[in-house]
Amino acid sequence: MSTDAIVVLKEDHKEMRRLFRAFQDAQDGLASQRQKLVGQILEALTVHTCLENEVMYPEVRKLLPDLEDDILESYEEHHVADLLCAELATMDADDDHFNAKTTVLIENVEHHVEEEEQEWFPKVREALGRKQLQEIGERMLALRADAPRSPTAPKAIKKALDAVTA
Prior knowledge:
Oligomer: single chain
Strand content: under 5%
Distance between the termini: 31 Å
Order of helices and strands: HHHHHH
Helix content: over 70%
Shape: elongated
Number of strands: 0
């Protein structure tokens, strides 16, 4: 497995897209299946957001000040996703708003991922060397084991709040 930070994040994006498709395919299915899929989505997003907020964004912000606006926008997009995740974590799949709220979350995350992959990652790759990206990726992989798994975990809430005020 590559330790390149961008490769690590793209692998996470790939897994999220897979989970999103599975949810979309199950929208008319059993509530228990939708609940399980949303639980997996929330865990994947919580871990991924932690890695970006704690390692990737601060490091790029420090090394590439020209990308400040992109990073601040990303923090705000994470904040919106964090709020939706926290709400979904407390909802039951039988709730009238469950599918709609999950769909809005998916749309927001897909927009964020597309911006990162099409606009932001190429700028970062061009400006940072392979060694720097590998070091950042290694730090993200080391953090993954201790990252919060639920958007309602105290550690996740604190990290979400810290990211907004960063």
